[in-house]
Amino acid sequence: SVLRPVASVLSDFRDAVRELALSGGDKRALLGLCDKVRDVDLLNLGIILDDHGDGSALIKFGDPEKLRRERAARQAEEDAKLAQKEAAARAAEAKRQERLARGKLSPKDMFRTAEMSTQYSAWDEDGLPTKDQAGEDLPKSKLKKLAKEQSAQAKLHDEYLNYLQYSSIAARALRRVAKTELQAEIAKREGLAVKYAKWDSGKAGVSAIVPNVETRPKADN
Which among 48, 55, 85 has a CA at the least distance from the CA of 70? Predict the structure, then answer.
């Protein structure tokens, strides 16, 4: 029968909707079933549901094989865009982590590492070298270059310190909304207070304490 494949699609859809309803599935899952009927099941039979903005759909018909090829081409294009987006996100995260790793070193210590200490013999109070290994004063051009490098490191170090503080704040916020079974462990840390301050040029600004939220809603079990 010509209608048998369509009837099979409708029967499978009905079974899936019924199972979803009995299991307490959400609206998103139901819409996913509708999309599958439109984009896969009916399309394989050469039936096109062209959705309109008012929620209705125009029924069209086409060659099933051609429709499947077009669907595969669209999917391949979407997959390529997604892969490109994910690759860009990974590259951005790797760059961010690399900056954080470089920012761990304080600008006051950057010229006092084991490698750098073999090149200089004296430093000012900010850690900027003033004399070379032979004890000679560094030329102004060299001092200017080192000061520029130290300024760049100070910005990286500020980013790193801000990251540590914001991470601590976020961790505390997560603990405050933890599930009941974790509350006993969290109670051990209730006396802790978190302070935050924005760092600039290697110096912390005015600090503030993150307030306790005693009226927070309880997490669902």
Answer: 48
**Among 15, 200, 13, 92, which Cα is nearest to 5's?**
13
SS3 of residue 130 by DSSP: strand
The burial of 157, by beta-carbon neighbours within 10 Å (0-12 exposed, 13-18 middle, 19 or more buried), is given as buried
Using alpha carbons only, give the angle 162, 165, 168 rounded to the nearest 5 degrees: 150
Q: Look at residue 15 in the predicted model and tell me its pLDDT.
A: 94
* Token pair for 7: 């009837």
143: its two tokens = 């001092």
Q: Phi then psi for 160, rounded to 5 degrees?
A: -65, -45
Q: Checking DSSP bridges between strand 47-51 and strand 57-61, what pairing results, if any?
A: antiparallel
Residue 100 host element (H or E): helix 64-103
CA angle 70–76–80, rounded 5-degree value = 150
Q: DSSP string covering 168-219, please?
A: HHHHHHHHHT--GGGHHHHHTTTT---EE--EETTEE---EEPPP-TTPPPP
Q: Is the C-alpha dihedral spanning 187, 190, 191, 192 positive or negative?
A: positive
> 204 or 213: which carries more pLDDT confidence?
204
Residue 34 has pLDDT above 90, yes or no: yes
Place of tokens 């029924």: 59
d(CA 38, CA 66): 16
